[in-house]
Amino acid sequence: MKDKKLKVGILFGGKSAEHEVSLQSAKNVADAIDKDKYDVALIGIDKSGRWLLPNQSEFLINATDPKLVKLNKDNEKSVALVPQSGGELTDLSMGGTHSSIDVVFPILHGPFGEDGTVQGLLKLAGVPFVGAGILGSAVGMDKDVMKRLLRDAGIPIAKFLVFRHGDLLDLQSISDEIGLPFFVKPANMGSSVGVRKVTNQETFDQAVQDAFNYDTKILIEEFVDGRELECSVLGNQKPIASVVGEIVSTHEFYSYEAKYIDEHGAALEIPADLPDAVSQRVQELALQTFQTLECEGLGRVDCFLRRDGTVIVNEINTIPGFTKISMYPRLWEASGVVYSELINRLVELAIERFDREQKLKTSF
Question: Which of 323, 254, 328 has the alpha carbon at shortest distance from 290?
Answer without folding.
Answer: 328
